[in-house]
User: Fold this.
Amino acid sequence: MDKEAMAAVLLLFISALVRSNAEEPFDVREHLSTVSRYDVVKEISDNSFVPSNIPDQCSPIHLNLLARHGMRAPTKRRIKEMDDLSKRIEVLLQDAKERELDLQKVPAWLWGWKSPWKGRFKGGELIREGEEELYNLAIRIRDKFPQLFNEDYHPDVYPIKATQIPRAAASAVAFGMGLFSGRGKLGRGHHRAFAVSSESQASDICLRFHDCCQRYKDFRKSQEPTVHKLKKPILDEITNALVQRYGLNFTRQDTSSLWFLCKEEASLLNITDQACALFTPSEVLLLEWADDLEMFILKGYGNALNYRMGVPLLEDVVQAMEQAIKANEEERAPGSYENARMRFAHAETLVPFSCLIGLFLERSEFEKIRKEQPLELPPKPPQRRNWRGSTVAPFAGNNMLVLYSCPNESSNKYFGQVLHNEHPVPMPGCGNSDFCPFEVFKERIVAPHLKHDYNTICNLKIEEPKRMPLTTPHEKVVKSLGSEPRAAPGPQRKKETPHQNHKACVKEILERMGNPKKLCGCRRGACYGRWGGGGVVVVVGGDGLWRWEK
Ligand SMILES: *[C@@H]1O[C@H](CO)[C@@H](O)[C@H](O)[C@H]1NC(C)=O
Ligand SMILES: *[C@@H]1O[C@H](CO)[C@@H](O)[C@H](O)[C@H]1NC(C)=O
Ligand SMILES: *[C@@H]1O[C@H](CO)[C@@H](O)[C@H](O)[C@H]1NC(C)=O
Assistant:
């Protein structure tokens, strides 16, 4: 090597060093929106926020936890998408060969690539790494709040709730195994058995409110074109870039699938040099933003319905805090009151809950929300934004409201501290503090939401005719107080011809309604389906007309 070349190499080396000192190297694993691994994103927090100093006389008396399930395998639908992608890649490579294109540009891993989930027919389960996320979280929480977790296990002292979805229930178990490890007599880990309770999926308005809320389901469906339209230009731009870069004729769908593959590889398998390496950092930032926009519109501040339907959960949380205050005031003996209420659910639960307590808003947005004004979409990169899927709801993402009692000579004062992913975060509704007097929390943050009632929010609105698939404009909604549906009175009734049998009735309900949770069947010439919880009964008369009853 001559001197000049040597100097050039040195220069390159030095400039690389300088660059890496100047800015953190880009780590794609920090930009995977809600597919982020917890330990990768946990420490990313808003450095400019200074948490409150909690006064010495304060001690925690209760903890409300809401956690998303940990890392999960791709769902069945996604497994199929990956199998399709594998076939598509084969076709693209074959096509490029036939057209005698320059194959130099094609990344080596694409040749013969098969989906890592090929041949699997079941998906969506909590994977081992996901178990660890929850197990370790529990141990950290126990260490951080020894005052709360030194009681003997009792289901009323440490209630653990999960949705009926297995990955959430398994997450609760993983958490409990961590929380009570060393506290029992089972096995070498000295485990303690504990209970995880679940509401029926059809009526779980605390943790799966989105699933019981028909208006939300309708809204979500109606927003699909909006989300698609927002994502399209981003995907198109990146697709064009990929086609140029790799000489393969990728489509928008391919780009979307490759981004999904990137997220799963990077998060679940810790592989970042395959699908993720197809994209430049700025493309990754755009794809991440597109995912965050979708979360904003379908689960977040994009529509008040998204979070208002979480009111039953908010009520449950506040009720737990009030009971803890009461027990504290009554100076009840330890072990005779609840120390922590722990809930394990989904992004569809954690994201709305974070919105209910007003987290991750930009400046001045809290006032807008109070005045029920719409918010702007989160700004496009490189502008910074608070609304990030990787922070709001990564795998095992969690929110804790810790209730503190701060006695002084004359009285007790109660404060709630909010921790998101174990870090104190500002509550715009409480002067941007993470440590909020309980009365202020209740009045400023909670009370405005409690004006809304779940059933009113979620039931099909009678005043909105376009939501009622009536076949004639004259048809009236029938209301009755009884739980059993009644056929329409008067002449309408005569028009109805009884359904032949239960099966025909079920078929008709399914065709018209999608999927009511409990199919009740056919009675008195009318066919009806019912959603659990909400108590909405939909009657399909033999005349093909619709009625709602409450
Ligand atoms: C590339 O794909 C597009 C859309 O699938 C198609 O219309 C076009 O003919 C393809 N081009 C080549 C050269 O295969
Ligand atoms: C993921 O890979 C990186 C290097 O590529 C390594 O440093 C890290 O420890 C790995 N993480 C896990 C959880 O395996
Ligand atoms: C104790 O609490 C009362 C009531 O909130 C308050 O007025 C008083 O200033 C507090 N005293 C001290 C020493 O903090």
Q: What stands out?
A: Confidence is low (pLDDT under 50) at residues 8-22, 462-500, 517-525, 531-550. The first helix runs from residue 3 to 22. Residues 62 and 339 are 5 Å apart (CA to CA).
